[in-house]
Amino acid sequence: MSDEKCILLFVKTPARGKVKSRLAAELGEESALHLYENFVLDMLDTLKGVEHRLKICFFPPDSEKQLTDWLGEGYAYLPQRGSDLGERMKNAFLAAFAEGFSRVLIIGSDIPDIPYALLNEALASDTADAVIGPSSDGGYYLIGFTRHSFLPDIFSGIAWGTDTVFEKTMEIFAERRSNVHLLPQWQDVDRLRDLRELFARNRDSQFAESRTMAILRENQETFFQYTGRGFTTHQ
């Protein structure tokens, strides 16, 4: 297994009131939960095309039965353990490298339309110490390391959930003189306006036939307000 690569998909086990809190505040908990479940399913569909290993890293760590009841036993599961997101990511990397994987990526589950080609680019960045994909909100949607270049302290001292996460992470990379492969910026879906933008950019894309897009088409009059120039969110 020493030459294998692995993707760790970070998910929250779906439960009403426990996922997509900012979307829930705008759309209601039931709608936010339904959307999040389909974000995960759409990402798993995309990941089926990736040749390397996949593990679903779930939170909370005692929710494996609930998750396997939903997604089935066909996936490898790994609990997220730690006091905050940074510690959970660090521990997930350490667990994967301890299994013998040579390169490991963590991706979030808030990017349902992530392109297959972008994932392949991340996995193919073999000459880099690390790879990172910045998100439009100041965070990042993907981060990866080789077993020999892993920096555990890249996850310490970060104000998670703020717009400085990517900036602070890049500062640490610079201090350590890491060779970092920078991916194109992509957009997390955290708010209603993010849904609007996802809907607009994917009307004619391959993602147009996804579960998420089907939900948005069915509910566009509820989720969005048509202005004559396009759809805007109720804000």
Plain-language structure description:
There is one protein chain. It contains 9 helices and 9 strands. It has 235 residues and is of the alpha/beta class. The protein has helices at residues 21-27, 29-47, 64-71, 85-98, 116-123, 165-175, 192-201, 211-218, 220-223; strands at 5-12, 53-59, 76-79, 103-107, 130-134, 140-146, 180-182, 224-226, 231-233. The longest helix is centred in the first third of the chain and has 19 residues, at 29-47. 34% of the residues are buried. The termini are far apart. Mean pLDDT is 92; it is low at 226-235. It has a 7-stranded mixed sheet with strand order 3-2-1-4-6-5-7, covered by helices on one side. 38% of the residues lie in helices and 19% in strands. A hairpin with a 4-residue loop joins strand 8 (224-226) and strand 9.
Task: Summarize this entry quickly.
This protein is an alpha/beta fold.
Q: Which key features would you list for this structure?
A:
single chain; 235 residues; alpha/beta; 7-stranded mixed sheet; two-stranded antiparallel ribbon; 9 helices; 19% strand; globular; disordered C terminus
